[in-house]
Fold this protein.
Amino acid sequence: MQAVKSLGFLLKALLGIGMAAICWGAFLYARPAQSFVGESSRIVFFHVPMAWVSTLAFFIAAWHSAVYLKKRRIESDDAAAGAARLGFVFCVLATVTGSIFARVMWNSYWNWDPRETSIVLLLLVYGAYLGLRGALDDPERRATLSAAYALVAVVTVPFLTFAVPRMYQSLHPDTVINARGKVEMSADIRTVFFSSMVAFMGLFYWMWNLDRRVSRIVRERAA
């Protein structure tokens, strides 16, 4: 048990150091990217990982929802709910950072660009999921209906995140994979960007496990 606690502390320490290193790299190590206004490209180191983590979280929520419907284990409902909540939070943060980027690039916080519109729709879809959970008092009924909704909601994720924004002309730059299907970044930008992706996934995983432990404690105390 002591070894597990020590390992957990070490991993959290590494995560903290990693996130600090990402902040340093984003603002002090990586140079500003070409074709961006001023220092606006630095927002990409946070905006894109947040958007990616939110997408990943919604798929995780759907997976655990399916597991709950099959096995009826309340732990799976906790996992699905926690992933959806965090996905919603990261989606909000991606929206905020994207809005700041839009203000710098196009002098307006909001332009109803296809990507901006699609992320608002995604927030509405998962805001409704959270509203559904909050409206139901019976735990079993809440878990069942929420799981069913999550499986329907996840169908919208690839369309709103990847397909719809590319079906229409967009102000949004292809900062990761461009129309030629290549990742065109300088070595310093590429290093910070992909390190940030890994660090934010680690942050999500830590927060998700913490949420599941809290849900279990609350449930045990209520029993």
Q: What stands out?
A: The chain has one domain: 2-222. The mean pLDDT is 87.
